[in-house]
Amino acid sequence: MFSLTVLGSGSGGNCALVTSDRCRILIDAGFSARRISQRLQSLGIEPESLDGILLTHEHSDHIAGLKVFCGKFDVPVYCNSLTAEYLCREGIAEANRYKIFSTGSSFTIQDIDVQAFYVPHDAVDPVAFVLSSDYGSVGFLTDLGYAPKLARERIREVHTLVVETNHDEQRLQADSKRPWSVKQRILSRHGHLSNEAAAALVADIAGENLRRVILGHLSRECNSPELALGAMRRLSLDSLELHCAEQNQVSPQFEIGPLPVARPLRQNDWVTTGCSTVSEKINPVAGGHDNEQQAEYLLNLGWDVG
Predict the structure, then answer these.
(1) What is the pLDDT of residue 260?
(2) Phi, psi angle pair for 236, to nearest 5°
(3) Quick one: which of 31, 120, 126, 302 has the fewest CB in 10 Å?
(4) Residue 33: which domain range?
(5) How much of the chain exceeds pLDDT 90, in percent?
(6) What pLDDT score does 95 carry?
(7) When comparing pLDDT for 272 and 77, which is higher?
(8) Does 305 map to a domain?
């Protein structure tokens, strides 16, 4: 079993749950500890049973409940060193609660393999994730101004993708409540993905592996599910299973399926031309981690964390 449930996503908070046969992980903790606990319990999961919280970055809509949640429950927090240093300065959880990974590394929590990789956003060291098990993989690509080549390659193999569709550009430009400087930040290469940019990204990486796309982090004032889904459909992405995550409602439980398995070659797969033999393209299932060094170690900010 390998599944994803979005506990809520939007400009007011973001949190998702990934579960496997042996592991339960939160991605971000952007709601109050009470709300996170209530939404977990509505799924039959006690907060203290979590194996960890993965943090993408330190903005409040991703960590709002972290301090109180960690005060109540003995759950490790996985983040990179710059994010941990910021959180420690803010007094959010004790230093020995953090398990540090290097951006660009791979590590394992129980039976889930995690890849963490850089994305451009106006945070100290923002990351995105791909979580994999024997059943398949799910990618989390939110809070980024654009998707660099590395990020695209990391998510190209996933079965399910959670991607940011933050705003409709016309609505953002017409919004009289936001000053021009804020609009510039949102539209910058370290801001947020628009509906159109997210749709172009999905169209670029869609292939034999991608089956489901969950649109997340929608702005309250400058977007709507209809606009976000419409941008996907305009690029003929209807063949994918499309969902829009909501701020105030827990999503269905999405089962993460296996990647396509290369079948054995048959006689009809081969075409002989002169002295050369050419086979049709078969995409093998990727196995194991990247060659990047696995890194997981405890943060040391001058305290003896044992």
Answers:
(1) 52
(2) 60, 45
(3) 302
(4) 2-262+283-298
(5) 81
(6) 83
(7) 77
(8) no
Give per-residue pLDDT as tens, 201-229.
999 999 899 999 999 999 999 999 999 99
Is residue 133 in a domain? Answer: yes
Task: Classify residue 258: in a domain, yes or no.
Answer: yes
- pLDDT of 26 above 90: yes
Residue 26 forms part of a structural domain: yes
Look up residue 184 and give its two tokens. 């510039």
Asked whether residue 302 carries a pLDDT value surpassing 50, the answer given is no
SS (H, E, C) the chain: CEEEEEEEEECCEEEEEEEECCCEEEECCCCCHHHHHHHHHCCCCCHHHCCEEECCCCCHHHHCCHHHHHHHCCCCEEECHHHHHHHHHCCCCCHHHEEECCCCCEEEECCEEEEEEECCCCCCCCEEEEEEECCEEEEEECCCCCCCHHHHHHHCCCCEEEEECCECHHHHHHCCCCCHHHHHHHHCCCCCCEHHHHHHHHHHHCCCCCCEEEEECCCCCCCCHHHHHHHHHHCCCCCCEEEECCCCCCCCCEECCCCCCCCCCCHHHEEEECCEEEECCCCCCCCCCCCCCCCCEECCCCCCCC
**Confidence at 268, pLDDT banded by 50, 70, 90:** very low
Average pLDDT score, the chain = 87
Q: What's the number of domains the chain is made of?
A: 1
Domain CATH number, residue 142:
3.60.15.10
Strands 24-27 and 127-133: unpaired
Asked if residues 82 and 124 have their Cβ atoms less than 8 Å apart, the reply is: yes
Question: By the 8 A CB rule, do 114 and 106 touch?
Answer: yes
